Amino acid sequence: MSAEAASPAPAPAPAPPTRRRARPRIDLRRLGRAALFAPALLGPAARDRLSDAIGHVADAHRAHHPDADLDVLHRAYVLAECSHRGQFRKSGEPYITHPLAVTLILAELGAETTTLTASLLHDTVEDTEVTLNQVGSEFGDEVRYLVDGVTKLEKVDYGAAAEPETFRKMLVATGNDVRVMSIKLADRLHNMRTLGVMRPEKQARIAKVTRDVLIPLAERLGVQALKTELEDLVFAILHPAEYEETRALVAAAAGPDALAAIAEDVRRVLREARITAEVLVRPRHFVSVHRVRLKRGELRATDFGRLLVLVEEDADCYGVLGELHTCFTPVVSEFKDFIATPKFNLYQSLHTAVAAPDGAVAEVLIRTHRMHKVAEAGVVALGNPYTASGATGNVCGASAASAVPAEDVTCPVPDGDGDADADGVAEGTEDGERHDPTRPGWLSRLLAWQRHAPDPDTFWATLRVDLAQDGEITVFCPEAGPLALPAGATCVDAAYAQHGEAAHDCVGARVNGRLAALSTVLADGDAVQLLLGHQPVAPAPASGPSPEWLEYAITPAARIAIGGWLAAHPPAPAADPVPTRADEPRTAVAPEALAGRLRRSDRNTAGCAVLAGPPDAPVRLARCCTPVPPDAVTGFAVRGGTVTVHRAACPAVARMAAAGRETVAVGWGEASGCRVTLIAEAFGRPWLLADLTEAIATAGAAIVAATVEPPCEQRVRHTYTLRLADAAELPALMRVMRQVAGVYDVGRA
Q1: Of 140, 146, 81, 83, whose CA–CA distance to 119 is shortest?
Q2: Given a cut of 60, is residue 220 above it in pLDDT?
Q3: Half-sphere exposure of 613 (CA within 13 A, CB side)
């Protein structure tokens, strides 16, 4: 699956090209026996050549898995070498160097034997006459599944959609086995290392796909060792000027290491505290240096690297942190605890920054050796998640029969033509998938929405947008429990993540117990209760999602569902704004009558009197705060000798006092009537205005003015200025208004 297409070996007089299908069929069983009994069948010289070719892979593998059985790797190498014989890369190297390099990358990360076996064979089905059935019969169903997962779809069959559909197939396979993507990432890394032989335009195209898709996937799977090198390689191709400038800065800073002295001070502090730790200076890669430069402008001598402190136990991490913050000056804003709250990609570490006595600031990473292995290799370091031990080196098939429980081995079953099922998903499992203990939440969401992506272009564009969201939060829903969402998700995203298409009827949400707009951006740890149209708080069903929802929905699942509903339900022609409801036995307020009420003038009858000043001065209650007894009030004289009365807590009081306006002492007289402004917030529904005005009239209040704001997110706000005969009636009036169906809050302006 190389980005460099296989080509014939260069020769002075090239022979006419031969058809790929004309090569003789390879006898896999004979090759397997040849690898197993190399001394007898191939002789000492052949055995030595085999050892030289695969020896460095075997050494790297044994460093992580001392008891691994290397025989299966030898057999896989023989098959790969024979099937790729005569093929060359564009660089002129024999093609077998590519699967060997990919396998070495994974071996150095600690991948188990099954992954390495599939890595050696990952291009055989795509570029040679070897079939999936043959791979499965020789190496087991798990190796077969991994090879199938990374095999490209043919352009002759899919045309321009081949690349997005290949990634879709690969992601579905990754949902069943994350090792598929680890092989793909290693494959792309080696191709990027050797991309210099390609045309510049092809280099840029491959680099952009790597930047938009593969690097975010490497980040989400926690494979930082691959991600950082891919970032530097893409940086060099897409931004050559900035890359050369950064490389020159790094080269110029290669003199005396400013971090070395701080590292020695840290070692001394930890020795005195009797904490066993390994302190290393960890250089930044080029992209990291470039980002620090953009953030800070001018680089400091300590910005070219960070200190890495490795300990044995989790508790030691906090012990190291305490010693560093005690003996050095900590930079509080730089502290992050990813041990107590790991990142969504399995990453765990303590981040801090300390200042040495000379003022030099060093960033410090503190983690255990186990955390460091996972931080570098991510899911690759987890081994085989489908075995009893979770990290054995055996492969599926006869050699793994005793290591893999029958209920855990659910590799896809080959059909008669040697191909996997059309969707690349294992058979015999619930919903076509097996439980994967390493599957993160983002991958489950991706697998869910990709099923509804209508075409390859939509899938490809949505995938890039989804992968650009590089954080994850967890919110808690009373019905569903913890819900993982991308950072920046809103209540709309949570609704579709929890309820699917039933979220079309969502009319509101409570976040941490308070009513919130559907556009509210959620934070990590928020408690979210989604309110659907059929719930008692809003008995009238919602009409469906609003086009505005697309403005603040960020998850692909929500956007695809909303877009689909809007396409299937185009806006209807405007209806009569004054519907009739003659069949219901309740009194509706006619618009003309309501308008007549609102046009009536209102004179103050609140009985507020001037206590200091002209006793006959006219008094007017301020419309901005509409004070009522027994509110604390204050007054200001305005033009014409009128005294305007405000609530003491009104913001206008503070502004006028700051401007030097003199206050007038006022107080409530014996009259008990008052005027007040109330705001009713409700879920939009038919006849809400009529029901509210009827409730107000039943409570004995007169409407002086009313304002209804345009609906937003299926919520409406009504503002009423009311005249009450007695201020003591106000609490009862507010209770009556809250009892109107759909109203969730009533308060004073």
Answers
A1: 146
A2: yes
A3: 22
Q: Is the peptide bond before 437 cis (omega within 30 degrees of 0)?
A: no
416: helix, coil or strand? coil
- Report pLDDT for 372: 93
pLDDT of residue 155: 62
- Dist CA 743 CA 240 (whole Å): 60
Residue of 4, 81, 108, 127 with catalytic role:
127
Cα atoms in the Cβ-side hemisphere of radius 13 Å centred on 728: 2
Taking the mean position of all CA atoms in its chain, how far away is CA 73? 37
Q: Helix 556-568 to helix 441-450 angle, to the nearest 10 degrees?
A: 20
- Dihedral class, residue 654 (left if φ above 0, else alpha if ψ from -120 to 50, else beta): alpha
The encoded tokens of residue 160 equal 């321009």
Query: Is 475 in contact with 525 (CB distance < 8 Å)?
Result: yes
Q: How many CB atoms lie within 10 A of CB 514?
A: 9
Nearest to 79 by CA among 127, 29, 45: 29
Owner of token pair 């055995």 = 47
Given the residues 126, 419, 694, 745, select the one marked as catalytic.
Answer: 126
What is the Cα 34 distance to its own chain's centre? 48
b/e map 429-456, b = 16+ CB within 10 Å: eeebbbebebbbbbbebbbbbbeebeeb
- pLDDT tens-digit readout, 58-86: 989 999 989 888 899 999 999 999 999 88
Task: Give, in order, the Cα–Cα distances in Å from 631 to each of 227, 602, 634.
Answer: 63, 20, 10
Q: What are the angstrom distances between the C-alpha of 371 and each of 108, 309, 342?
A: 17, 11, 11
What pLDDT sits at residue 210?
92
- Six-digit token pair at 530? 């989604």
Q: How confident is the model at residue 726 (pLDDT cuts 50, 70, 90)?
A: confident
How many angstroms separate the Cα of 176 from the Cα of each of 170, 387, 431?
A: 10, 14, 11
Reported pTM: 0.61
> Angle CA(590)–CA(594)–CA(599) in degrees, nearest 5?
150
Q: Per the structure block, which two tokens stand in for 183?
A: 């092989």
* Integer CA distances (angstroms), 192 to 116, 163, 287, in order: 20, 17, 16
DSSP-assigned letter for residue 400: G
Q: Tokens 């990358």 sit at which residue?
A: 105
Segment (H or E) for 509:
strand 506-511
**Phi, psi for residue 577 in degrees, rounded to 5:** -70, -10
Residues 6+ apart with CB under 8 A from 381: 109, 110, 373, 374
Q: Please tell me whether residue 635 adopts helix, strand or coil conformation.
A: strand
Closest CA to 713 of 518, 421, 529: 518
CA distances from 494 to 396, 481, 744 (A): 39, 12, 21
Q: Return d(Cα 629, Cα 358) in angstroms, integer.
A: 65
The answer to whether 482 and 474 are in contact (CB under 8 A) is yes
Quick one: pLDDT at residue 177?
83
SS3 62: helix
- 126 labelled catalytic: yes
Q: Report DSSP state, residue 211.
A: I
Instruction: Determine contact, residues 99/59, Cβ cutoff 8 Å.
Output: no
The Cα–Cα gap between 235 and 484 comes to: 31
Residues shown for the chain: 749
Token pair in block for residue 422: 């059309």
Q: What are phi and psi of 269, to 5 degrees?
A: -60, -40
Catalytic annotation present for 187: no
Q: Which of 308-322, 355-369, 445-459 bottoms out in mean pLDDT, i.e. has the lowest?
A: 445-459
Cα 679 from Cα 663, distance rounded (Å):
28
Q: 332: exposed, middle or buried (C-beta count within 10 Å: 0-12, 13-18, 19+)?
A: exposed
Q: C-alpha angle with apex 423: 435 to 100, nearest 5 degrees?
A: 80
For residue 21, give Cα distances in angstroms to 18, 123, 130.
9, 16, 11
